[in-house]
Each structure stands twice: as C-alpha cells, then as structure tokens.
Amino acid sequence: MPEPKRDILARKDEIVARLRDIVPGEGVIVREEELRAYETDGLTAYRQSPMVVVLPSTVEQVSKVMAYCHEQGIRVVPRGAGTSLSGGALPLEDGILLGLGKFNRILEIDYENRCVVAQPGVTNLGITKAVEHEGFYYAPDPSSQIACSIGGNVAENSGGVHCLKYGLTTNNVLGVEMVLIDGTVVRLGGKHLDSDGYDMLGLINGSEGLLGVVTEVTVRILKSPETARAVLVGFPSNEQAGDTVAAIISSGIVPAGVEMMDKPAIHAAEDFVQAGYPLDVEALLICELDGPEAEVDELLARVSRLAEENGATYERVSKDEEERARFWAGRKAAFPAVGRVTPDYYCMDGTIPRHRLAHVLGRMREMSEHYGLRVANVFHAGDGNLHPLIMYDANEGDQLERAENFGADILKLCVEVGGVLTGEHGVGVEKRDLMGTMFNEVDLNTQQRVKCAFDPNGLLNPGKVFPTLHRCAELGRMHISRGKMPFPDLPRF
Questions:
Q1: Exposure string for 170-182, b = 16+ CB within 10 A, e = fewer
Q2: Topology of domain 227-336, per CATH?
Q3: 349, 424 contact by CB (below 8 A)
Q4: Strand (E) positions, 204-298?
Q5: What gap in Å lies between CA 45 and CA 272, rounded to an integer?
Q6: Where is the FAD-binding PCMH-type domain positioned along the sequence (predicted)?
Q7: Does residue 480 surpass a pLDDT of 60?
Q8: How far apart are CA 229 and CA 252, in angstroms?
Q9: Nearest 10 degrees: CA dihedral of 439, 440, 441, 446?
C-alpha cells in the first residue's frame, strides 16, 4: 500500500475539526474502537484502520469533503456496505474512509420508463422489494444482495446468478450522479436508453472507486416473467456437468441462469438450507428458464435431453414458486454454508471460456492436493465466472500464505486458458499484483491515464488495481534519445 503521508498524520486534529464543520453531529468517527468496524471489507485477511471515517448524508457534504481533500492532498477511500471480496474498500492509515451508508433512500420509481432512481446505499435486494408488488424486479442479483449496496455494485460491476441472460450491473445502469475529487458534481446518462458521445457510464461501472464517488444511480427494472422454473441436474463428475453447460449454450438456449456446485459445496449448502439437493452426485447444475409457459416447457425438455446425453444421473424440476426459491436459496447461501465447515475460507473470482470448465476444475483438484487445502466450487457456470472457496485456518502455521498462493495459481490458470482475473468482485488489492499476468506495461499505463484524467493527484482509492501507480506527470513524459524528441517534425502544443 502507499506509504502514509506523515505531514497529513501530523495534522489529524486539524483535519478532523474541519471535517466536523462539514459533517456535523455523529458523521465523523475517530475513536479507535469505533474505527475497527471499518478496518476491513469482505476480504478479511487484510486489515488497516483508517485515519478517520466520514459519514455524509447529503451530496453537498460529499462535495465539500472531496473539495477539502483535494485542496489538502488527503487520500479518500469510498465505501458502500463493505461486502467487497477483493479489498476494494481497504482503508489507508493516512486517509479518509468515506462511507455512503446514510444514502439509503429510493428517490423515484418510474414504471412508465421502467426505472428506479436510488441513492448508493440502497441494497440491491431493496430495489426489487420496492417494485415487486407491481410485478417488476431488478435483474442483477449477487449472492450478497440482501446486504450489498447498489453503489458498491456499480463500483465492482457486480453480476449474480441471472447475469447470463440479463447482464451485469453495467448492462442495467442508465445513469449516475457522481462527485469528482475536486468536489464537482456531474451527471452521466439518465432515464433514456442511450447517451450520445463517449460511453462514460462504461468507465464508471467497475471503476472501483478510483474515478469518483457515486451519489445517485438510475437502474432499469424489468417486468417479472410469466413463468420461471428451475431444474436440478446431478452428474457423476464435474467434467460431465461442465460439458452440459457448454452444450446448453451452444444449442442456442439462453437460460436465465446456470449455476454449478461441486460435492463439497452441495453438502455444505444442503446441510445449511435443506434445499433438497441430491447428496450422491459429484456435481450439480441449477438451470433456470423463464418466459411464456409453453416456451419454458419446451426449453426444459431440451435441457433434459442434453443433460441425459452428457451422463446426468439425477433431475428434479421445481413444481412451484416456493420450490424454485428453495433451489436458489441453497446456492445463494453457499458461501456462509462453507463458512460453517471451515474456520476461514478465501473466495476467488476468475472467469474462463465455458468450454474450458472441465479442464480448469481438473487442474484445481491437482492444486488442492499440492497445497494440502480443500476447495469447494460454486459458480456462475453459464458465463464461466468461477468462485472457488479455498478452506484454511489462519491460526494454523502457513495456511493463509498457502491459501493466497493457491488462489493466485487459480487466477493465473484462468488467464492461461483465455479468461480474465475477475468477473464481478473487482481487482482491489487482492488481484492487483497479478495484473501483469494479463496486461503488459503499455496496457496498464493506458488504463492509468484514464485515472489521471479524473484524479490527477492520485487521491482516490490509491493502492488498488494497479501494481505500480505512476505519477500522472511520469505517464506524460516523452523519451529523449541523444537530445532529440521522437517525431521532431510534429507540432507540439
């Protein structure tokens, strides 16, 4: 992480006093025991207490805090609900942690334009709950949707079990209000479907708090499908389940979601939720089809045939909405379920081409034996987004170090087979030092130039995403050879 600025730490009392002028009452937290609640996010292996926590409740307060930090050279780490699994909200010793938890209101529900305007602290599930009585819902549904905030979803470009058919956060956000590091408040997009000019929303989705602080989000909502049915399909091997996923997609079927769980994850989830999962299979697919009833019936029959051709030994179709919800409850509770059978676990997030599922799962088994650590696999099989859960005990010898090395090898394997380092958890600090396995120096420098356009002094969430954060002036330097600039005939401005 960046070296703390000693001059900032020396002025802590002065900084706190000014922040309390901007955010009065209980909006500024400095007591050590209260700061501990903010020292980590969902990646609990890494901890660092912030210098101070600020909890603004208005856009004006956010703007003034940002302007003050920009003027004084103070680093800022934005934070939503703290459910990030990549260390994206890890604080800095000399920085302000800017919490958006008080921005928790839905501002407008517009059924005519099929959108909702919400503050960033509204939970993902809260949006669906606000519109479901009218037959609408918000499609992206991460497993943490009961707790994760829509602002955090924008920062990490979150997905969920239904992102295969309905897209990630970036495909469902229509507009944002955002505060830049100098305090300027800008609006990008709106209720309209498309914006002219550059796709600035595409930059903001997945920007991990490096470009600005989102204070309002406009999302599209969808009409609930006429029919939705889920089918459980069990297999004697992970390879057969992976081959079935590839067969379903290549046949032209686009399910609402296709999830896969291996035997350790199946047993942990069933013990926790009693979802009705079979315990005598090595791999389980949960495939959901939605749409008109006749279409769903036809697609279920086709999926059944494909599964049988690939060696399925178990099949169970949900008979009603209650049973469909129970099938998904087991999948969504898989992470806490694994937490009941191991002192600690490390949740990874890499994405691979679907046809390499069987190969990657086989290699992971070999790595598990090499590192002497168990791994449970539960993931979005339809789009190849893996979530291996590496089980370890941080109080036992070098198990944490082995778990980190195991995870790094999984991510390197994802890139090796043509995939990427992350699907929806973001890079944060977890994958930062692996970015060089996927991007060369030119790629990384080009990405950093985008950050420089928004944050030239590198004050927003530094130490995340980029393995080496150059000063913006360094990225603009030109190579001089023998006293001559390249292309000397070009005019310079």
A1: bebbbbbbbbbbb
A2: Alpha-Beta Plaits (3.30.70)
A3: yes
A4: 213-220, 222-223, 227-235, 257-262, 283-291
A5: 24
A6: 46-224
A7: no
A8: 18
A9: -50
